[in-house]
Amino acid sequence: MESHIDQAIAAIEKSGGAGDPLAIATARGIVRAYARHYSDDDFVVKAVEDEFVLPLLNPTTGQEHREWHLGGKRDAIIEDKQGIYIMEHKTTSSDIGPQSWYWRGLTIDNQVCLYLIATFSEQPRGVLYDAIKKPGIKPRKLTKAEAKTLDEDRTYFGRETPDDFASAGLYGTKETPSLYECRLQAEYESDGHRFFGRRVIPRLDDKLVEHLAHFCLIADDMDRCRGDERNYYCNPKSCNAYNSRCEYLDLCTGHDHPESETWATRNRGFSDDKPELTMTASSIDCFLQCRRKHHYRYGLRIEKLRKQESPALYFGKLVHEGLASLLLSKGAING
Ligand code: SF4
Questions:
Q1: What gap in Å lies between CA 27 and CA 318, rounded to an integer?
Q2: For residue 333, is pLDDT > 60?
Q3: Distance from C-alpha of 321 to C-alpha of 310, rounded to nearest angstrom
Q4: Which residue lies with its CA nearest to atom 8 of ligand 1?
Q5: Percent of the chain topping pLDDT 70
Q6: Residue nearest to atom 5 of ligand 1 (CA)
Q7: Could you tell me the pLDDT band of residue 331, with boundaries at 50, 70 and 90?
Q8: Which of 16, 138, 139, 145 counts the most CB atoms within 10 A of its CB?
Q9: How far apart are CA 293 and CA 20, in angstroms?
């Protein structure tokens, strides 16, 4: 088990590069605790980071849409004694307790339904939603007792620290990323059920048929917009969604234009050989949130040049890399 954790830690560090050391340390602590929390997992890993593209079928006529396809990338496909599941990892700041709102509504979530539709021929039992709660703690100053233990034993919250402290006198100094990692891991391990939650979102065929019909309607709306750009109307209520300013605000308010040097071409996020008109869960959600935003992001495919990756995205990517590595190791064992 420990060698698989080491591989996951190496994957996090490789992905993190020269980025934020605190985010990298946080991801390491969480993934270590995760691996131990789920050390009894009894399933076979059939695929990891599994990309798909399929025709968009009209559930009433059985006809393929003339242009649009459905696409995405499933974190993993797994199988246990009950059957096949699609596994999706999520990091979240929300409460993931059993009674929390977090789990409600997932039966009609676009991503959940899209992945179940894409995997339908294998008759999956559902999507195993694997949520990890982000930490609520930050680095803090060491107490006298902690500094003494660290100085004498070179341990912090039960773990040997990799830091090379030159001398004593650590009391009152702030935790380094590695020390914070030790405390964070201890908290996640001691209170695993608060930080790690899983739930199977079952496959409900009537809901999937309904959802497929919705995808067809959305594809028709997208076609209408492509036919006349004026149909990509703005939704000003979304400009500051989740307290984050939309990156296209300057375009919408006439302070910039798409041909200016502010903008770079976005990576498609898909292999180049895939059909141009492929709807993913993200592109569908974006279209439903604001058509104008969808036009910039998925039509013109532009994004802010030299845009700093958001800390939340960077952190999510690190955890994701660690979890993918754990699954790959498990796949190799099953293999
Ligand atoms: S693209 Fe939409 S969400 Fe973004 S600034 Fe324009 S109107 Fe607002």
A1: 6
A2: no
A3: 17
A4: 239
A5: 93
A6: 249
A7: low
A8: 16
A9: 29
Centre of ligand 1 from the C-alpha of residue 57, in Å: 30
248 touches ligand 1 (CB under 6 Å): yes
Predicted confidence (pLDDT) per residue in 265-316, tens digit: 887 766 666 677 899 999 999 999 999 999 999 999 999 886 677 888 899 9
Structure tokens at 146: 């902690």
- Report domain extents, the chain: 210-304
- The Å distance, Cα 277 to ligand 1 centre, comes to 22
On whether the CB atoms of residues 4 and 330 are closer than 8 A, the answer is: yes
Residues in the chain: 335
Q: Which residues of 313-333 are buried (b: 16+ CB within 10 A; e: fewer)?
A: ebbbbbbbbbbbbbbbbbbee
CA 50, 57, 286, 120 torsion-angle sign = negative
Q: Is the CB of 246 under 6 A from ligand 1?
A: yes
Measured from the CB, is residue 300 less than 6 Å from ligand 1? no
To which residue do tokens 């599994």 refer?
Answer: 50
Neighbouring C-beta atoms of residue 10, cutoff 10 Å = 13
Report d(CA 247, CA 231) in Å as an integer.
20
Whether residue 238 has its Cβ less than 6 Å from ligand 1: yes
According to the model, what pLDDT value does residue 270 have? 65
